[in-house]
Amino acid sequence: MNGPESVVVSGVEAEVLRVAEELASRGRKCRRLRVSHAFHSPLVEPVLEAFGEVAGSLTYRVPLLPVVSNVTGERVEEFSAGYWVEHVRAAVRFGDGVRHLVGQGVTHFLELGPQGVLTSMVQENLGDDFDGLLTPVLRKGRPEPEAFVTALAEAWTRGVPVEWDSLFHSTATRHVDLPTYPFQHQRYWLEATPASPVPATAQDAVDAQFWEAVEREDLEALTGTLRLPDEQPLREVLPALADWRRDRREQSTLDSWRYRIVWKAAPEAGVPRLTGRWLIVVPEGVEAAEVLAAQAAEALAAHGAETTELRLDATGADRASWAERLASTVSEDLTGTLSLLPLDARPHRAHPAVSAAVAATAALAQALGDAGIGAPLWNLTCGGVSTGHGDAAADTTGTQAQAWALGRVAALEYPDRWGGLVDVPAEIDERAGARLAAVLGQQAGEEHEDQVAVRASGTLVRRLRRAPVPADRARTPWRPDGAGTVLITGGTGALGSRLARWLAGNGARHLLLTSRRGPDAPGAAELVEELRQSGAEARAVACDVADREQLAALLASVPAERPLTAVVHAAGVSDSAFMDDVTAEHLAQVLRPKAVAADLVDELTRQLGLDLRAFVLFASSAGMWGSGGQAAYAAANAHLDALAERRRADGLAATAVAWGPWAEAGMAASEDIDDHLRRRGVIGIAPDTAVAALQQALDLDETCVGVADVDWSLFAPTYTALRHSALISELPEVRQALADEVPERSTAAAESASALRHRLAATPAAEQEHLLIELVREHAAAVLGHRGTDAVQAARPFKDLGFDSLTAVELRNRIAAETGLKLSATLLFDHPNPAALAKDLRIRLLDGEVDTDTSVLADLDRIDAALTRLGPDDATRHRIAGRLQVLLSKWGTESGREPAAGDSHHELADASADEIFALIHDELGKS
Fold first, then answer.
1. Of all helices (H) and strands (E), which one includes residue 102?
2. Interatomic CA distance for residues 352 and 655, integer angstroms
3. CA pair distance 154, 820, nearest whole angstrom
4. Alpha-carbon span 481 to 483, nearest angstrom
5. What is the spatial distance between Cα 128 and Cα 118, in angstroms, rounded to a whole number?
6. How far apart, in whole angstroms, are the C-alpha atoms of residue 866 and residue 868?
7. What pLDDT is recorded for position 236?
8. Model-level pTM?
9. What residues are paired with 380 via a beta bridge?
């Protein structure tokens, strides 16, 4: 007897059904409950004796806290075996117990249960006049921490004492003093970014009021709103209605975060006409590349271009020597460069975790810049991308996918000298050649397509599209095989721990968690114990998943009776570096734990013939659309997408999710990075919602999907600040954000640069540098989120001010827009502080009006800054030292004098590399 309007009848089925029929005939609503046994009825009497024996084996004591019995409806004085036998057989007097509590003066009811079911029954017993606290600690469909803290907050506001110190004891939360001064002018409180205003309507208000009442499960408010005579018709449907509403709201959120890549047909161009000279770069020793290079050269020549071929050893990509060859080989009138280096899938000689294709692609882009060649660089691949069903990527190594991702980052960091990416068929015939020439002959501008696939059917261009889930799309709920084992790479980290808990909650009973430190990783032992208490057996194992022998041993350790049935690859490192600083060693550090490890897991599980129900790859949006300072990371994650597509093509399970940053977990979980990304329109995803998105991707059996919370009104203007992006151009929010801004921005930038030059010209020479220092400080303060420039000292290093690779790109973009100058992505790292940057800006802006000595000395300052960033690589230092020797010797000769005996410059030929560096630092770079 739960209450005056809710009674459960239990017993022999036929008898219970007759009772139900009679009640239904009297207008009472009846519903059959799904239970395993008819408890509290004569049907349990055969087991009471055995149950009593078990109950009698326990020791009972007087309760320390008062307990109201469902057997008597009153307070229990003591427990016994007989009491519990009666509890199984007797009627449940829940309603009597509630009324007894009220009679004892109880005014606060807090339900400890999974769904808040009892709260509504308590309300039924108390009636409408009850005005005390009545709240469940947990609610179905809501994250447990959120529901729990909400219940505590509600209790607190009703005067219930809460031990907040106990709640926050194990967290990083701490007490802070409120400001003691009443007139402080600087505000430090967080302020939400105002959303775009949406006109409110009367209907909006009505809907909001209705659904708010549903989610509160407020029967009184809803019966009044719907003008129902009583609450009974809603009592059964209300919880389901509230659940439906929460599910739809969650689905709406997930739909707004889901993205996919599509390829759309581009309009056929007329007969293309090329001009000028093109450099075609070919990897030595790759026959397929040589054949394609010849076909490409023929196609370009057929449409008016002259071509020069340059062959390079991609397996030993060397930036410095390549720059020298380019400087001596390439004429100043070069129109463009077409590189086939991405076709070299052989490993790099010194770093086999990296393909020659990727290391050489980065080195060539750098070397062209070093050689002062500003003509656009295009990367050519062959079967490197899949454009949809029936057009699977022919490249089975994933190296060309990596090169594409590297190119997307190059477009952001080398906006003025990057051409784009073009994928061609295995044979460039006359028609394909014409389409290739049309792609290369594009003029930079708003219609520039820089991610293109040439196919027999036409030219296709890459686009980012939203991927909402249609309501009628079929899905099969995915659950881990409880009898099998699930492998989680990176399983002891913050992200892996979240996934382990989710899998355990979803039915996984055997978890294998790997990381470099395994059981010695911080929190690993506690995680294993937590999973054990939840019913899952977990092992934390130290294993370098990118090491073939270690991985093979790990897979061999999985018991045959609990075979591996699912893999979640969440391992990886994010080591930021600008394209100009990317080396083969840096690429190896990032690619090895993510791309190489994924390939090995794929290969060895295939060899073992394992029937995997899921092969989940944690990728990143950096691989989908690129991110400044993330070249290697983008390449590693694009590799995962390619691997997922390759497994699917082979009929194997695979799901790659290109995630935006996770809040509280993952590689962007630090408060500084989260704040930086949020101010630029990239919001961290709550882990519980991210897991719901992963569950959905598995239910839908998807191959590749992007999940990111992006405010395009903030993100798009920054992303396209220095270069148009056709990739994101068709998203409605991007079109809206850029529609009015593009002409205004370009006009404003030109006017701003012109005005700045006029201001400089009108300012005394002694004050020009100060003017530019203030300009740099203002933009730096804005990027870092300061309200004024006080926190940005002119002589303080950018790194100490808080700049990293992400914020450095934004400051570069701001200053470029303000000055109209083309600036390197490494601008901040080439200049130690705002004062040094301002000095360089003055020289560039005044364009020759500055004293020549000052200009040369400023250039030497930049060289000095670059040299201090060099590592201890002796070979590199000796090559640079040699170049400096040649430069100084040439300078001394052209100055019209021979170096005097004993002159330090005369002794350069005998100087060591370190002595050359000391000379540059101590003598030539100081003004």
1. helix 94-103
2. 27
3. 56
4. 5
5. 16
6. 5
7. 57
8. 0.65
9. 422
